[in-house]
C-alpha cells in the first residue's frame, strides 16, 4: 500500500513573497491553496500530469470528475478552447470574474488529459482575485484548481477552512482573508450552440438549471458540500439539538444576513456551515432562503449539503 508522509503545511499571508513561493512550488509540480473571489482553490500546473494527479490525491477526489482550468485572460483561454461569438460575448462581459465556461477543447492545448478527465470539452475561468491572477502571471502556467477541500466536504471561504481540511496534504496555503462571493463560480456549457447552466453561482444569466439525463457537470453529485451532521432545510425555529442558521430578522445561533441580503448570505454560507459543523450541537438547521437571484445558487448548495 502507498503511504503518503504528511507535509508541513505553511500558511502565509498574501503578498509578493507568498506568490513567489507558491510559483516556485507550482513549477516544481506541487499543489498550492490560493484564494479566488469565489472560494479558495487548490492549484497545480494543468500541463503537468503528475501535478494534476497530486490535486486528486490531496482531495481524495474521484478522477472522473474534471477540474476547472484557470488562465489570466481571454487570449490565454482562446489557446485552450474554441470560442464562438456567444462564448466571446460572455467572456468579455464577465471575465475576470466568477463565471466558468465549458467549451470544446483544442486538441493541441497541452492540458493534461487527467485535468479534463479525458473529455473533449474543457472548463475554463479567468479569476478576478489578485492573488490567483498574480500566481497565474508569475508561474506562467494554466492552473487547474478545484475548491481546496477534501472531496465532498464543505467548500473553503477562509484559509482556516483549507487548513482544517487539507493540513498535512499540501505544502502552502496563501491567506487573503474571507473570499468575497463565497459560492463557487457559475458554470455555463456552450458546447452545442445553446448556453446551458450546469451550476448556479454568483453570475446570474437567468437560465434554469440544465437537467439533462446524464450528469453534465460530473462534480454536481446530489450529495456534496456535506457537513458531518444531519442538516434540515427551511427551518423556522431550532428544534431539540439543532444549531440554527438564520436568514433575516429571526432568532438563531448565527445569521447568514440579518438584513436578508442574498449577496451577504452567499458570502457567509460556507463559513456558517463550517461553524455549525464544529459546534457542540448534534444537528444543523437552516432557515428558508428565497429562490430569486443568488438565492437559487444558495439553495442549490444547501440541497446538496442536506442530501
Ligand atoms: O469558483 C470555482 O469555480 C472554484 C474556484 C477555485 O475557481 N472551483 C471549483 O472547482 O469550484 P470544483 O472542482 O470544485 O468544481 C468544478 C466543477 C465540477 O462540478 C466539475 O464536474 C465541473 O466543474 N467540470 C469541470 N470540467 C467540466 C467539463 N468539461 N464539463 C462539465 N463539467 C465540468
Ligand atoms: Mg468543489
Question: What keyword list fits this structure?
Answer:
alpha/beta, globular, 307 residues, binds threonylcarbamoyladenylate, 4-stranded parallel sheet, binds magnesium ion, 10-stranded mixed sheet
What do these coordinates show?
By secondary structure, the chain is an alpha/beta fold. Helices cover 28% and strands 18% of the residues. The chain is built from eight helices and 14 strands. The protein has a ten-stranded mixed β-sheet with strand order 1-8-2-3-7-4-6-5-9-10, with helices on both faces. Strand 2 (32-35) and strand 3 (40-45) form a beta hairpin. It is globular, with a radius of gyration of 19 Å. It binds threonylcarbamoyladenylate and magnesium ion. Threonylcarbamoyladenylate is lined by residues 36, 38-39, 41, 65-68, 98, 100, 102, 116, 119, 121-123, 125, 145-147, 184-185, 187, 198, 216-220.
Provide a brief overview of the structure.
It is built from eight helices and 14 strands.
The total strand number stands at 14
Total helices: the number is 8
The string of secondary-structure elements, in order, is: EHEEHEHHEEHEHEEEEEEHEH
The main β sheet shows up as: 10 strands, mixed
What's the SSE blueprint?
Layout: E1 10-13, H1 16-27, E2 32-35, E3 40-45, H2 49-59, E4 68-70, H3 74-80, H4 85-94, E5 99-104, E6 121-125, H5 130-139, E7 143-144, H6 159-166, E8 172-175, E9 186-189, E10 196-199, E11 231-232, E12 242-246, E13 254-255, H7 262-278, E14 283-286, H8 295-306
Parallel strand pairs: 1-8, 2-8, 4-6, 5-9, 11-14, 12-13, 12-14
Antiparallel strand pairs: 2-3, 3-7, 4-7, 5-6, 9-10
Helix pairs in contact: 1-5
Bound molecules: threonylcarbamoyladenylate and magnesium ion (MG).
Residues 146-147, 155 line the site of magnesium ion (MG).
